[in-house]
């Protein structure tokens, strides 16, 4: 035994076993103490509460919801609401950040000044203050009787009302998938190695893919149309409120705008840094080959800048997805608020917080995995890495 303890590897192994064993014992002791304290307060631990009726309603849901639904269904609603808000915010923040980032790298001095002013202002104001500001602005808009109207869209203090097709829910979801396919197909067709055509000669195939996806969307909308109803359901004033159309509540609008503006200020700096990372020599070489400035931008500058931007952009997207928890400040029923309400009504604090952590881990790890896969796919290989 003494001879074994003289071995450095054996001592290191024993120390590691002792450390892990102490950690496991401490965790077990905490769990036992927590169970005993909960039992003394009459609170039963476990996940049986997930199948009990909630007894309360949610003010925003993309899925049908009633007070008789179980907790697990409300958790699903919360996750979908968070994903919907996060996706909307990320798309808007990317658009805003790209525009401001391009302005920051522009040769126009006024554009650079405006871009820098935007970043300096909105990047240094806390996100929660921006959420409160936009929520106050939206809730102080005119009442439904004095709503601002344009092209059938009504803007009021109770939310934004937009026309929607009179189609079934499944048909609407299938149409959305077809539209997403119309956006993703040209990108995939332009990069896949399964086509024998050269990359520069795939424009016709890409247009055909977009046309086919959009044609499928039109067919689905036509087939799923509800009978005896007009093609579009327009919002209209009935009494003191608006009926018809799709209502986007003020809470969602305020959060989406705040995330877009705040996140856009950070993404703008990422975009600026990505374009600054592209060497002037590479662009000058492309121009010397007779390429137009637009083709130099699309074929040389933008792809190289994307490779520099993507790792930092992935971290920013993960952070903005976590920022959706600000919804509880204005009453938006995202995943975090559903968990908070569950704790108040059921008393299952540890279980609900565990579900919250697991949910955000799954969302953010999935988002990071997608971006890591994209980053690996567009990374320069072999001798291309050498300057």
TrEMBL record:
Its main location: membrane. It is found in: Cell inner membrane; Cell membrane. The keyword Isomerase does not apply. InterPro entries: AA_ABC_transptr_permease_3TM, ArtM/GltK/GlnP/TcyL/YhdX-like, MetI-like, MetI-like_sf. It holds the Pfam family BPD_transp_1. Residues 79-371 form the ABC transmembrane type-1 domain. Keywords: Amino-acid transport, Cell membrane, Membrane, Transmembrane, Transmembrane helix, Transport. It is a multi-pass membrane protein. Belongs to the binding-protein-dependent transport system permease family. HisMQ subfamily. PANTHER family: AMINO-ACID ABC TRANSPORTER PERMEASE PROTEIN YHDX-RELATED, MEMBRANE COMPONENT OF AMINO ACID ABC TRANSPORTER. This is ABC transporter permease subunit. It comes from Mesorhizobium captivum.
